[in-house]
Design a protein that fits this description.
Layout lengths: L5 E4 L6 H7 L4 E4 L6 H8 L4 E3 L3 H4 L12 H6 L5 E3 L10 H7 L2 E3 L6 H17 L1 H10 L17 E5 L3 H10 L5 E5 L5 H6 L3 E2 L2 H7 L2 E4 L13 H6 L5 E4 L8 H10 L4 E4 L19 E3 L8 H19 L13 H12 L16
Parallel strand pairs: 1-2, 1-3, 3-4, 4-5, 6-7, 6-9, 7-8, 9-10, 10-11, 11-12
Helix pairs in contact: 1-13, 6-8
Length: 360
């Protein structure tokens, strides 16, 4: 290459990513969000790759949204060839704007699936067994009637999974010992594939009316934004639980608040919110039938390490001239190759470069 690739990142999920990339011929620069904006822009405008900050990362900073991969950033960063999100979600990237500009968009689906699926199962058990409710009652003073904390069991119940990708499929496996009937809604999965993953494909309407637990594991896209509103919550059983480890904007928070207060559903397990981190005065956090976590479903020691390795390996592949293994906008490939050639003097190949990283 005639030019040394420059990669800008906000943070790694684990330091192992930096260890791996140190061994590659890549200029790796950290984007310091608390630095003056002019300095940060100077760093980004020279970048060929950008590991995009998450919404939670940028939320504490004024105008933090400018560091997401939207049209404004894309216009300023003329050398940018590829942008990647830290995990499976890629709502921090405007895919259409990147494709128009000839920028490859990647995510890191897969490594965090186990962590998120286990978290979703944890929500199910917590809500059904009233674990958090019982803990609050026990700590709040003398316990008058423990029968008031009577929960239910998962055995034989019906699970509805919205999004049967890596996370949803793993959740189905984890729930197998409970003998649950599993329904799934996913427009990108056919009936045979759903059956092979242990679920029966149904419409969203049927899933909502029949499920005891509605688990949302789909990405935030134009199709899923606002997927759950008043109509969908009204269709659920009053004994059912709504659980999401997806993205906050997939559901209407006000509609969810209303149905929880009115007793239209039994409770909710929330790892995501419209505003992250959520404000302490968010009314959902005041409800006894809500269990919440601050977008930590995918944050485990193991998942953070595996995500970091996958992230670093993908960037190695990109700058070695291979096709990214988790390319989200394959239509960009011809133009991306032209731009890559213009900048580096070599042309990428359509075959992913199989790189085995050293992690110690």
């Amino acid at each position: 290459m005639t030019v040394r690739p420059r990669l800008v990142y906000e943070r790694w999920t684990d330091p192992v990513a930096g260890d791996i990339l140190e061994r590659a011929d890549i200029d790796v620069v950290r984007l310091e969000l608390d630095e003056p904006a002019e300095k940060s822009w100077a760093v980004l405008e020279s970048a060929h790759g950008y590991q995009v900050a998450t919404r939670t990362d940028v939320a504490p900073y004024a105008d933090g949204v400018q560091w997401l991969a939207g049209p404004g950033l894309i216009k300023r960063c003329e050398q940018l060839l590829a942008v990647c999100s830290a995990g499976a979600g890629y709502d921090v990237i405007n895919v259409e704007a990147c494709t128009r500009a000839g920028i490859a968009v990647c995510n890191n689906s897969g490594p965090g699936a186990e962590a998120v699926a286990e978290h979703a199962l944890g929500f199910m058990l917590d809500l059904a067994k009233k674990i958090t409710v019982a803990d609050r009652s026990l700590r709040g003073g003398p316990l008058e009637d423990r029968m008031a904390l009577r929960g239910t069991q998962l055995l034989g119940k019906t699970l509805g999974v919205v999004g049967l990708g890596a996370i949803g499929s793993r959740l189905v496996q984890l729930c197998a010992p409970f003998g649950m009937e599993v329904l799934a809604f996913d427009p990108y999965v056919d009936a045979a594939m759903a059956e092979s993953r242990g679920a029966r494909l149904v419409t969203l309407a049927e899933l909502l009316t029949r499920s005891d637990f509605v688990q949302v594991t789909c990405p935030l896209t134009a199709e899923t934004r606002g997927l759950f509103g008043r109509e969908q919550f009204a269709a659920m059983k009053p004994t059912a639980y709504f659980i999401t480890t997806a993205r906050g904007l997939v559901h209407d928070e006000q509609a969810l608040l209303e149905v929880l207060i009115d007793g239209g559903i039994a409770g909710a397990g929330l790892d995501v919110f419209h505003e992250e981190p959520p404000r302490q005065d968010n009314p959902l956090l005041r409800l006894a039938n809500v269990v919440a976590t601050p977008h930590t479903a995918g944050i485990t020691v193991e998942a953070a390490h595996d995500l970091a390795v996958a992230t670093a390996t993908q960037w190695q592949t990109i700058f070695a001239g291979g096709m990214p293994p988790r390319l989200l906008n394959p239509d960009v490939w011809p133009r991306y190759c032209d731009r890559f050639h213009e900048i580096f003097g070599v042309r990428p190949t359509a075959r992913a470069n199989q790189t085995t990283p050293q992690t110690n």
